[in-house]
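Minutes, methods subgroup
Present: GH (chair), OT, SY

1. OT presented the first of two proteins processed in the latest run. Sequence and structure tokens recorded below as shown on screen.
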Amino acid sequence: MAMRKDNTIEYVEGDVPDPLRGEYRDKDGKTIDITGFTITLHIGYEDAPLVKTATITDGPNGVFEFGWNPGDIVAGDYQAEVQITNASGRPLTYPASAGEFYFRVREAIA
């Protein structure tokens, strides 16, 4: 995998981190109103991919977050993607090209 620091989120196995927050913007950086959208995070765990549904925290300003539960963070290196489905049901998956977004989770020492 071609992981780089700027495209990789790093955690420690077993942790329950603060929610992962995102903002949906167009190519010019303008916020997109996501009221009525469904946003899911897919992490490619080998045994069973993890799918998390976002909470829309500020729809008009495009803000959402994914909360974590115990057991969600598993050691390894994984590709990930976010799927955004608009209010009319049209899905878009980001990143559009494969291999650009990763989770790196190291084993816990303690």
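2. SY then presented the second protein from the same run.
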Amino acid sequence: MSSDKDKDQCEVCVDQQATTIPSGGFGGIHQNCSRCGEFKLSGTASSIMRQGLGKDRRALLSGWVRNQHQLTDLTEQS
């Protein structure tokens, strides 16, 4: 189990600490956040998000990312 000092700020919600996963050639960020779930974010998307989404939009995006991850888990089980 990793401690909080092994974690980075989540790139999506910025409210939680997330585990950054080595991405092996992916030119972006691969993280697992307790709020957002596991996701990959391109470098371009990350740069755009840093310009300011606001708290409400980040909350909506966090929920959408989590839902997408849960939908993927459901389709892989069938």
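Chair's summary of item 2: The first strand starts at residue 8 and ends at 9.
Next meeting: continue with the remaining queue.
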